[in-house]
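Notes from hallway chat w/ T.B., transcribed later so I don't forget. T.B. wanted the structure written out for a chain they're using in a teaching module, and asked if we could keep both sequence and structure tokens in one place. Agreed to drop them here.
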Amino acid sequence: MLPIQLAVGLQLFASWTRLPAKVPGELNLAEAIRSLREVVPEDTIVCNGAGNYASWAHRFYRYERFGTQFAPTSGSMGYGIPAAVAAKRIYPEKTVIAFAGGGCFLMNGQEFATAVQYELPIWRAGGAHAGFRANARARSRLGQTRDSALHDGSASHHAEHHARRD
């Protein structure tokens, strides 16, 4: 029998991780994470860095086995992609998913060249933000209105470019 505090804590956590009834916009990220969880094997390794996007995986993905979550403890941006490449290299039989927002991807996206070189199939999920919207929002609050725009920032194009050996 669980101590009452633990039982109450588990109930609170379960209610916090339930899907929201309605969210604005066309994509419900909570539902997308839940759906992903239903189609991947239980031993899937999920990697992420630090960004607003990571909260969706932390809140709505259920890690059923030890050693299936690779994430920074101190908020290191860019951690997810290299962690996924290393995980897939060490555990080629497992499904590996990297959650990476645009900023995190650009910090270590060249690691996809290693994945291409070793033919490591890694799933990348996350925002490909043309303009780094989270940073843009923060700058606008400070009165800075400039933004960055990227063109052809696809992961496959990026990986192929870095993996070329001329």
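Follow-up for T.B.: Strands lie at 45-48, 69-70, 96-99, 123-125. Might be a good example for the class.
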